[in-house]
Amino acid sequence: SEFDGPLMRTEVPGPKSRELTKQLGQIQNVIAVNFFCNYEASRGNYLVDVDGNRMLDVYTQIASIPIGENASICILWRRYNHPALVKVMTDSHNLSAFINRPALGVLPPDNLPEKLNAGLLSVAPRGMSRVQTMACGSCSNENAYKAMFIWYRNQQRGHTDPSPEELKSSVINQSPGCPDLSILSFMGGFHGRTLGCLATTHTKAIQKVDVPSFDWPIAPFPKLQYPLEEFKRENAQEEARCLEQVEDLIEKWGKKSRPVAGIVIEPIQAEGGDNHASFDFYRKLREIARKHGCAFHVDEVQTGGGATGRFWAHEHWGLDDPADIVSFSKKMLTGGYYHKEDFLPDKPFRIFNTWLGDQTKNLFLTEVLKVIKRERLLEEVKRSGKVMLHGLYELQARYPHLLSKARGLGTFCAIDVRDETTRNNLIFKARNKGVVLGGCGERSIRFRPALVFKEHHAHLFLNIFNEALAEM
Amino acid sequence: SEFDGPLMRTEVPGPKSRELTKQLGQIQNVIAVNFFCNYEASRGNYLVDVDGNRMLDVYTQIASIPIGENASICILWRRYNHPALVKVMTDSHNLSAFINRPALGVLPPDNLPEKLNAGLLSVAPRGMSRVQTMACGSCSNENAYKAMFIWYRNQQRGHTDPSPEELKSSVINQSPGCPDLSILSFMGGFHGRTLGCLATTHTKAIQKVDVPSFDWPIAPFPKLQYPLEEFKRENAQEEARCLEQVEDLIEKWGKKSRPVAGIVIEPIQAEGGDNHASFDFYRKLREIARKHGCAFHVDEVQTGGGATGRFWAHEHWGLDDPADIVSFSKKMLTGGYYHKEDFLPDKPFRIFNTWLGDQTKNLFLTEVLKVIKRERLLEEVKRSGKVMLHGLYELQARYPHLLSKARGLGTFCAIDVRDETTRNNLIFKARNKGVVLGGCGERSIRFRPALVFKEHHAHLFLNIFNEALAEM
Ligand code: FES
Known about the structure:
15 helices, alpha/beta, homodimer, 14 strands
């Protein structure tokens, strides 16, 4: 069962973490390493490091753990008295999926349709019955872009058969086979680090500098004032400005013969600093995409999987047809994207790679989704999210010189700190008091607990965070 | 233990495969699906499908299974009397790695340095003590390209600190921050399907058409006559022609201000049709790269892991310093790349993503490498490779109207068939006789058995292949 609270034995990183960091430094760049973990000893919302420090985890492996450190085992073992996830692995039928990684596109395992139906498709966004599995957020988005480019060219041609000239020129990277199409993205957006994704990522320079890119349009993302309800008029003006720019850019890129095949956007810009926009903004953006014949791609790699209080963050928008493509990874364990029928290429090997995901992740996801439903974890998220956000409002009222712009949906919350150095110091201080946090944007802290983070964890977190703030 | 030979009950795909294909067709494009597999029933060199057909596997999930279908369990259980791979998974210490997927770059597990040393680094190419794990062949190559771009700009600048102007312009995809650097690749090369990789892939048009690309130089790959030993003079001329073109292209792209930061090449062009070049060609190419200040990247995604009779195919070249970067995936279970010290960025988050691979794949790889060593599987590969190639020579002498250009290193063999339709028919016919094969290039068949493919399997394969040919 879970622990009662943090328990700190050393500074973090402690001596063992520092020693291991030195060892790993012989092999890899270790500047980003926070500390080494003892995952075996970790449980639920608590991450235990190699020095025996037990910390409340409000970062969850960069927002990628759905139901807590070892939580799956823990919950299932205790609550339902059967270790379902351990069973997933030791069941001889599944065991083979761990040891033989099938090439899902050519030699799928017998249970693939069943597991996709019980897993990914059981939580498909409204109106989407197609899903393409991938292995991480980057290949999910790269392939989603390819699907949009193919779709766009099919529209332009009026049919799905590239001409001999297109086929021939494509092999040597030339037009018309490799057309000058573009994807419109937003300043502050993050969609991955492979070259295609990176051309739509605009967060930190160090992620992009020295790497060749594409001449694709970049629209401003609304810079809103928080709390959103208090600045409705100002925010609506700012959003109108950005939407106008979007239309201008689509026209401009069309004129310079690099038409916008698709628009990609996050429901909350996560890496970029937890930047929100109103649901109305997204509804209007969707209409602009439709009007100009651009595909609309919602990147839910970080927001998807329940942390906002709905399974998909874009469900908050209240649109029947919010997207052509919805990509995911992280908490979903497997990468991939849902898509409309039109985005399914009619020829093989256009969207393809050796593995096309990992069946073992589908198996785990199916179990995780069962837990989310049985435990009504989205309800928990709404409750603990309320405690979190309310608490953050209180803290920013108490420390106005340090904190501002508390914001969030569900437990997907963030707050701004005075400046980058202060933000980083605050994260270190909180960590030494037993809370693992991560930054985002220039001076924000993002809160990314697992779905098993309950109201009392939120209170615990707020108390410790308050202590850290008091010492600043 | 393993089966004695193929056993066919239905046509392939049989009724159950066809039914499952229909089901999966509701969710995904299934044109590339061959048949559905029962991985639990599969063993060693035999793949069993859902209709109970048992086939000799000479394709191994697109060359990605190192020691056979379920072989690891099977071998270890029987031979060493301890199910090491099952233990890998059920050991409570490892179990947590399956359930908590750590963000290896920020919160690594305690056993990461140990497992990297016992695994990937124990088979590092000579002179390389650094490895960056990734999750698939595409992110391995994408990040290898980024490492080469960063290295190249560092050389140009004379230091590793981008200017404020570079940093600022990079965020909006513009130069100087996003420089017009290029990667030189070869016609017929395959390096992946994400946008950066795809710009260096030049195999089939359908993999590239409609996707925007980069203006990067593409050199001709030598079109050699086989067997290589019999056409030494002609082949040397052809290789000299290609090398001259490489130098011309480097100069030409330098002049148009898109300098070549790196050259990427496979030791055998696999997807492109199993095109070989002489070891001398590769030695000279390496020197050209050095002379022009370009990084040299050997892509061993398909050739690495032992199938050529050496652990890395490029070890055949007999060079002390063959490469700056060696990328891998497939048989290595984890993706990644080895690199020289200079290709390690000195700042964090330049080469980074959420997971940076998958620790569970490192755990399996460590066990697989133990089996390869204990069982001396590379010796087996050399022996069965000889039987294979010799047998293919005999078959092409017997069916000169059908077959030509038998070629191979170890069991990494291929043969050309008269034309594409005949090739595809031959693959179907062989499959219905109980051998799973895959094509590559326009009219080649590639043979990609696992490392546990022994001489008697090679004889068995040759007999069945002969029967199929006789019926053509
Ligand atoms: S690009 Fe996604 S796993 Fe490699």
